[in-house]
Amino acid sequence: MKNTTILHTANEFVSKGDNESFLSYCTPQTKWVFVGDRILNGKDEVRAYMKEFYKEPPVFNVEKTIEEGDFVTVTGEIRLKSKTGKYEHFDYCDIWRFEDGKIAELKAFVIQKP
Q1: Which residues form the signal peptide (predicted)?
Q2: Total domain count, the chain
Q3: What residue ranges of the chain have pLDDT lower than 70?
Q4: What is the CATH number of the domain that holds 16?
Q5: Beta bridge partners of 106
Q6: What is the model's pTM?
Q7: Cβ distance 94 to 110 under 8 Å?
Q8: What does the pLDDT read at residue 1?
């Protein structure tokens, strides 16, 4: 399977609220870098992040996907429900790195829309 297909398949689980199935597509030592915000090391930290911020499944609108070797870059919009129950809207650019068909790293640039 191409890395793009793997990523979009994994993200379908996130859209359905099935974070554990998504995490099965990640390496045990997966690293997520949210530029200017935080760094998550390993599945346990990613799991805790998802539990905190994905109270309800996020809504993605993928605009572009570019695959080159072990990297997949995705741009688009995401909506997340805040702790107050209102949706917040963001633009994002994610750069995903794969190892042996698994998600090894994410570098995410996320900007909240006014």
Answers
A1: none
A2: 1
A3: 1
A4: 3.10.450.50
A5: 32, 96
A6: 0.92
A7: no
A8: 61
